[in-house]
Amino acid sequence: MGKTVKILSVGGSIVIPKEGFNLSFLKSFKDLILKRVAQGEQFVLVIGGGATARTYQAGAREIGGLTADELDELGIQTTILNAHFVRYLFKDAAYEEVVVNPTEKIKTKKAIIVAAGWKPGCSTDYDAVLWAKTTHANEVINMSNIDYVYDSDPRQNPGAKKLEQISWTELRKIIGDKWSPGANVPFDPIAAKEAEKLGLTVKFVKGTDLAEVERLLAGEKHRGTVIV
């Protein structure tokens, strides 16, 4: 892959929300990515586990006796399943395997690599950051079910303020420093630490709002939080 690779961290809850596949969205997402590919862009799509991962992890917690790494491993397997689904969505336009090691340099003429989770101890946010390092990309686009990062959890605090731009130092005060399997935070704390070290920019966008996603991909102003 060349130096114009765009790294998209795609939340699993966008691929398959709790209520099931949103096929019209997935078809439109496929069309958008292929349109950008036709314009010469290349993509690494890092697919998360989302609600599927949390369902498995919640069941495992109820049974009891699993370590944090084992819970993470369950979550990683759901990212692999979700990633295979997305790879099949793109068929011949995508590299023929789901890649799990973000430090591996893939030699391919395909414009799309679909990736999944790698190791316990972090989320696919961290894998996306490592993909940026491997491909020499200077930013990660985070497609999730939120459009902004807030200064506190808006579900618990109606007065929470949306943040249009924030530094890594400020973000880490909000999310803390430790990763917990299945944690529902805007960005994995382990990933945040690595992104800050690499000097990466991370741009949040509501992944289901494809008009905003397209604006972001085109380098235009978009709704969402930018972390620098």
Summarize the structure.
With 228 residues, this protein is an alpha/beta fold. It has helices at 12-15, 23-38, 50-63, 68-90, 124-135, 168-175, 189-198, 210-217; strands spanning 5-10, 42-47, 112-115, 139-144, 149-150, 162-163, 165-166, 201-206, 226-227.
Note down, in words, how this protein is organized:
This protein is of the alpha/beta class and 228 residues long. The chain has one domain (5-227): Acetylglutamate kinase-like (Carbamate kinase, 3-Layer(aba) Sandwich), CATH 3.40.1160. It is built from 8 helices and 9 strands. It has helices at 12-15, 23-38, 50-63, 68-90, 124-135, 168-175, 189-198, 210-217; strands at residues 5-10, 42-47, 112-115, 139-144, 149-150, 162-163, 165-166, 201-206, 226-227. Strands 3-2-1-4-8-9-7 form a 7-stranded mixed β-sheet, sandwiched between helices. A two-stranded antiparallel ribbon has the order 5-6. The model has no long low-confidence stretch (mean pLDDT 93).
Oligomer: single chain
> In CATH's first tier, which class applies?
Alpha Beta
Number of domains: 1
With strands numbered from the N-terminus, the spatial order across the biggest sheet is: 3-2-1-4-8-9-7
Task: Name the CATH superfamily assignment.
Answer: Acetylglutamate kinase-like
Main sheet attributes: strand count, strand direction, barrel closure: 7 strands, mixed
CATH topology-level name: Carbamate kinase
Structural class: alpha/beta
Secondary-structure element series: EHHEHHEHEEEEHHEHE
For the CA atoms, what is the radius of gyration?
17 Å
> What is the 3D form?
globular
What is the number of beta strands?
Answer: 9
Catalogue the unreliable spans.
none
Helical percent range? 40-55%
Based on the coordinates given, report the CATH architecture.
3-Layer(aba) Sandwich
Number of helices: 8
The average pLDDT is: 93
**Strand proportion:** 15-25%
First-last Cα distance: 25 Å
